[in-house]
Amino acid sequence: MAPDFARGGPLQDAPARENKRSDFAFPAAGVMAVLLVTVFFTVASYPGFMSYDSLEALRQARSHVEGSQYPPFGSYVWRVLDWIWPGPSLMQLFQNALLLGSLVWILHSLRWNPIAQVVTVIAVAALPPLTGTMLVVWKDVAMAAFYAAGFAALVHARLRALPGKIWIAFGVLLLFCGMAYRFNAASGALPLLIYAVWVARARSGRREIVRAALGGTGLVLVLFVLVLVVNSFRFPSMERLERNTNMDGIMRYDLIGISRFSGESVTPARDGGMVDVAYLRKIYDPRHVNITAANDVEHRVAVQEPGEIARYWVAAIRQHPGDYLRHRAAVFREYIGLHRHEPFYVTHPSVDENKLGISHTPNALTPVAVGYVWKARYSILERAWVYYVAGLLSLVVFLPKRNRRFAGEAVAALGSGLLYLAPMFFISPAADVRYNFWSIWGALLCLVFVVSSLLAARSDGRAS
């Protein structure tokens, strides 16, 4: 069903809009679809599937945050929700509803009719890489939910809202929350904050785009500093949290990968020498650093101090830059599903053993949801690269067209997804499908704006 542009689509110039009651009508049908889908996910996985890092986030929410590999911001949010309704269910409902509700908010701002909103929500939620991730209480969903909500507020400010400044400030606040959920989220926030500055200035022209880019970059830096403070200190005591150890594991993984592809060992052994290449080739797995570590059954690979392993890592990259890139490319191909075998870790259909008293008992909906995701892992729709290509192709076809009504929104959405993806080539420790979650959402939102522009152009042509 096409959006209903026949009754007057959203205007490009915000000041020229009229404050009509229909502009603020509640999207009841879309919201009802969101509620049904989110309840289905929670019931099917009740009380919400949880992996180790999900349980660790809840444990810290119930005790005190410790930092290290896990940004504490998610635990602060969970602390509030766990107080209202103990366990993972409310957290899962909250992040899934915020994410899909933000999609409805965007569609409503674009004046998509109720049927189109319902169909789009269900279709998007049913995409295999999204379904598999939303069944689990993972911070990837929460981060994407805050990014989507922040972007929705900014789109609303440009297309529908009076006054817009309030919605812009609200959108920036939501984007800050999304940045705080993951240590690597800042790159994805950059295009959205550039868009925020562009909307706030409400002016057109190439110079305004440059000014918005500079302003958005400055805003990212300010918010990034605030994120560092939030995720580095325990509130309200302001005690320093444990150091983030993620990069230590990634560097150790890179050393094994460089050794595997170069044929020369650059990986220190526990006995003080270097681990032989044949053994490293045997344990190396481009799908996950933890699988590689688990394969080290003889415990040959040394666990070094941060400064020491960093020196080995820098020296290895300088000596074997091509082999470092070959290793990283192998991980990245697994990451985006650019291979013939099934994508890695499409969902986590259980609650790991824990001391929090949380367990999962399958119900009638569990095999329906999990079975669907499990069967779909062989589908082309499970592969993240498909969505990135679709988003890029839509812009290539769309941008040369005369009507570029939502070009800014399309570029911001896809740019956010791809900029979030780009650093993962170098820093990803694994190829979990869930790590693509926001990037896939950015590509899908780009398609929404491209379709809206094309339909608006057709509607304008008929009106003339």
Automatic annotation (TrEMBL):
Please verify whether the record's keywords include Membrane.
yes
Alphabetically sorted, this entry's keywords are:
Membrane, Transmembrane, Transmembrane helix
TM helices/strands, residue ranges: 24-46, 90-108, 115-135, 166-183, 212-233, 384-399, 411-431, 437-457
Q: Does the keyword Membrane apply?
A: yes
Highest taxon, organism lineage: Bacteria
This chain's protein is named: Uncharacterized protein
